């Protein structure tokens, strides 16, 4: 089993391995990977946790989580917004849930080279991204959800669209890998990237949420000087020195996942020292078994909610991997611009073998 990455002075490889173990301990025997054992499961967060398992060398566990999701994909390419006990508990069709399997499968391919899993899940990714592409709005943004009649809602959410920008590009890379090019996805992602960079009015105003601040950088739509300027603009609003990042600008609440995702955005922007500082700052949320509390209401010195979620732990693992830069999939979050390589050649030795499947 590959050794987990480390972040000297912050987390050892052994400590990060314990965090991966804590995620694996919450997985159900059938592969379901919920927020915690017996709690709700949503597709996006489950995939984030599966990626952390791959970083930690638990590929069989990650593959089981992806297969659990594949078995529950609907005929239109969507998933329910939430599952409990293996059944749908919130049936809404949300675009960001549909799209994220592409990121997870691309990450898993880079991590493991598992051609069988790629061939098996590619039809699921294809169906999901066809659905996402069909939800594009005239502005270039993508609707956040389908209405009950099956038509796209007129509202687009910036964080979800930034995630979909990454998903469409990962999906395009997978399409090249399996020998089924999907130029329409690239066209949709190009229009979406333009909207994310230049058309703020295309998105609902949720600027009080930190994810709307950093996610266009993390997803790869905003890069270079523009990325650094964006992060600088929101820094004093969202960052609490020594504690991490607020989830919401007007609440005294720092959260581990947002802090680590901010750290990954800082890596993308070339601000490594600031990224390390953020991962170090949120270690007050670490539990003795390697899991992480979701957040802290620092005005009351109280953990809230009182839960230790797989996706919070996963964000820590992915941030450390991006900073360490030693894992085969570290570039998925550290260097999203690499997907602009015309050859899509992030792992030459694997890609030269020809199409998968």
Automatic annotation (TrEMBL):
The keyword Transferase applies. Gene3D superfamilies: 1.50.10.10. One of its GO terms (molecular function) is transferase activity. One of its GO terms (biological process) is carbohydrate metabolic process. The keyword Chaperone does not apply. Keywords: Transferase. InterPro entries: 6-hairpin_glycosidase_sf, 6hp_glycosidase-like_sf. This is Prenyltransferase. It comes from Goekera deserti.
